[in-house]
């Protein structure tokens, strides 16, 4: 199953970049490449510009600065009109000139600042509010929002920052403040929108905004995924490609002892087994249904004659398969129950292998190995046991143990291709490149028409950076796959090649990669890797709705929580991107930024 992971890993490596396409927004081919370049290039200094703007407001505020200095020396005569009690009196302000009003507003704000400094937030709010009454200035709203931050009144923070942003949409300080408030309120998507805008305006150090963005992104995805999981949607079979590679390692079992032609249960079981090893999409679906049906039929029969050992043996076969299908459909608990019942009826090596896999899935390594021992006690020559145990050793980097098990599996059944390939991959991982080449050659000689060999060899080549060579191997694998009946490597070579193509951004590659992913989606509609790959390209083509739909489907299909979370993250990120594009101010800013980078020759 290791070949299945390539796209997932690719996506994982590019996670931040994909998330960051939020900020890239309107893009052409190669959005993430673009972003990575942005990361490395010094941004045009918005800070300086901003500095100028701040200076402007200061100037507008009149000789305020000097004045406030003088003020503190002269024990402050207020610059705003006061009543007999010394409280601000704004009853006549309406008639004053704009210049006079500005002066008064700034005076009120300065008073607010004084209160703020001495942490008298309610007084500060009062003066900022008066300042706002005199002049609708974003700075005053911003200042008042700072008070609400200190008071922990997040809704008010959102209100004031929103007011400030209406007057000055690129007010980064307010965007950041609103994002923080929205995060506290649990509105992570809103926070992400603001943070994306902040990162776009570049007033804040990108490396300080990005963790915030990522944190909100994680919280949002977690929230959405939790809600989704609570709906308990019926689980689906995994991709046909995954099913074929999973059952490919086991010895085909297309008959059983004491078959009774006149028994419906027996006929159903035989049909299920036959369908399972047909290696077709319909076959897997029908096998799934037939095993369940056979199980029910045996259950009824066993209710009538509970001590019939022959029946139990057959029921065990049905239950074992029902169990493994449940496991594959991502319901390990129910799967475990069925498999325990199966070994009670009649212990079979494969049942223990499957239980071992469930244990591994739960992270219970010890029980994993115990179950393999049980399987070997029944059949010391069961190749599948050695193969799966070898894989576990491989994953946990116990390479020499893994090697021994793969060798054993190979010697037990020389006509099964998987141990050959795993040995070759293992040898490569151990750094013995030429030995690995030899093993691949051996496999190729022995299985000249097997698509597995070029499919896995492609991964090795890609890992070495020989992308052209890897693509060629995927092409060979795809051709061999087509020539065979039934599913062997399925859509893996299509996905593999498409992934390589999308890594080397060019218009032709992009078009071809899209076609390959589309073909993979069509051939194997439950392949979440095909969907994720296609979704990413759709995102870059600005087909955001399609991308969101594909990411969400992928999240439903994904098996592990982490994979689900990742696909959900992409979906949520795409939704933010959509929102950003719909926002005229922010998307105009994106255009401006892109134009600037184009002018610098960063974008082709
Ligand atoms: C009020 O706004 C000005 C300008 O942004 C800023 O320099 C000052 O620190 C702010 N005061 C408070 C209390 O936020
Ligand atoms: C969070 O911020 C958004 C702006 O992005 C705003 O429209 C929304 O109302 C805020 N959420 C709350 C609960 O105030
Ligand atoms: C941005 O922040 C990072 C980490 O906080 C720091 O290492 C880096 O020097 C900062 N860069 C600039 C341009 O301020
Ligand atoms: C075969 O199945 C039929 C129908 O269930 C049953 O009547 C018959 O006894 C079975 N024969 C044997 C040999 O078990
Ligand atoms: C060996 O593996 C091949 C290919 O999977 C299979 O057809 C065959 O039945 C296996 N033989 C044994 C003895 O396991």
From TrEMBL:
PROSITE patterns in the cross-refs: TPR (PS50005)
PANTHER family: MITOCHONDRIAL IMPORT RECEPTOR SUBUNIT TOM70 (PTHR46208:SF1)
GO molecular function annotations of the record: mitochondrion targeting sequence binding; protein transmembrane transporter activity
Name listed for the protein in its UniProt record: LAME_0H05468g1_1
TPR repeat ranges, renumbered to this chain: 349-382, 383-416
SMART domains in UniProt: TPR
Family, per entry: Belongs to the Tom70 family.
């Amino acid at each position: 199953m290791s070949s299945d992971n390539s796209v997932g890993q690719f996506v994982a490596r590019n996670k931040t970049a994909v998330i960051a396409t939020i900020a890239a927004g309107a893009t052409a081919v190669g959005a993430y490449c673009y972003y990575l370049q942005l990361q490395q290039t010094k941004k045009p200094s918005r800070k300086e510009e901003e500095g100028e703007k701040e200076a402007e407001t200061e100037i507008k505020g009149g000789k305020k600065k000097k004045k406030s200095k003088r003020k503190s020396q002269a024990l402050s005569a207020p610059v705003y009109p006061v009543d007999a009690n010394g409280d601000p009196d704004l009853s006549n302000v309406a008639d004053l000139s704009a210049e006079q009003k500005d002066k008064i507003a700034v005076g009120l704000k300065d008073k607010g600042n004084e209160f703020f400094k001495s942490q008298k937030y309610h007084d500060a709010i009062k003066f900022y509010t008066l300042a706002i009454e005199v002049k609708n200035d974003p700075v005053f709203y911003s200042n008042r929002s700072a008070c609400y931050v200190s008071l922990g009144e997040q809704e008010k923070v959102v209100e004031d920052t929103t007011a400030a942003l209406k007057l000055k949409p690129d007010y980064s300080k307010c965007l950041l403040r609103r994002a923080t408030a929205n995060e506290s309120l649990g509105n992570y998507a809103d926070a992400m929108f603001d943070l994306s805008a902040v990162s776009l305006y570049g007033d804040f150090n990108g490396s300080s905004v990005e963790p915030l963005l990522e944190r909100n992104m994680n919280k949002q995805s977690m929230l959405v995924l939790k809600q989704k999981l609570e709906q308990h949607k019926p689980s689906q079979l995994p991709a046909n490609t995954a099913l074929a590679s999973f059952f490919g390692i086991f010895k085909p079992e297309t008959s059983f002892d004491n078959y009774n032609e006149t028994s419906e249960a027996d006929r159903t079981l035989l049909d299920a087994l036959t369908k399972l090893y047909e290696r077709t999409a319909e076959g897997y679906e029908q096998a799934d249904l037939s095993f369940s049906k056979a199980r029910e039929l045996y259950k009824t029969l066993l209710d009538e004659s509970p001590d019939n050992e022959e029946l139990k043996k057959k029921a065990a076969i049905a239950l074992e398969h029902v169990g493994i299908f449940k496991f594959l459909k991502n319901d390990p608990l129910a799967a475990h129950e069925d498999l325990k019942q199966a070994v009670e009826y009649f212990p079979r090596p494969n049942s223990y292998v499957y239980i071992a896999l469930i244990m591994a899935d739960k992270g219970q390594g010890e029980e994993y190995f115990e179950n393999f021992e049980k399987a070997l006690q029944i059949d010391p020559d069961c190749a599948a046991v050695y193969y799966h145990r070898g894989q576990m050793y491989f994953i946990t980097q116990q390479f020499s143990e893994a090697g021994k098990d793969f060798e054993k599996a190979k010697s037990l059944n020389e006509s099964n291709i998987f141990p050959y390939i795993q040995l070759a991959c293992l040898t490569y991982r151990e750094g013995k490149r030429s030995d690995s080449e030899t093993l691949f050659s051996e496999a190729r000689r022995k299985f000249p028409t097997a698509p597995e060999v070029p499919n896995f060899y492609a991964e090795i080549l890609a890992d070495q950076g020989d992308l052209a060579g890897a693509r060629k191997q995927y092409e060979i694998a795809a051709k061999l796959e087509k020539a065979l009946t039934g599913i062997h490597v399925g859509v893996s070579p299509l996905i593999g090649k498409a992934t390589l193509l999308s890594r080397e951004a060019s218009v032709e590659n992009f078009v071809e990669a899209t076609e390959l992913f589309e073909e993979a989606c069509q051939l194997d509609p439950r392949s979440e890797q095909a969907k994720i790959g296609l979704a990413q390209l759709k995102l870059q083509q600005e087909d955001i709705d399609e991308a969101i739909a594909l990411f969400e489907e992928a999240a439903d299909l994904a098996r592990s929580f982490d994979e689900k979370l990742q696909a959900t993250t992409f979906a949520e990120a795409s939704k933010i991107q959509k929102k950003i594009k719909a926002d005229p101010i922010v998307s105009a800013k994106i255009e401006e930024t892109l134009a600037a980078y184009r002018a610098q020759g960063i974008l082709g």
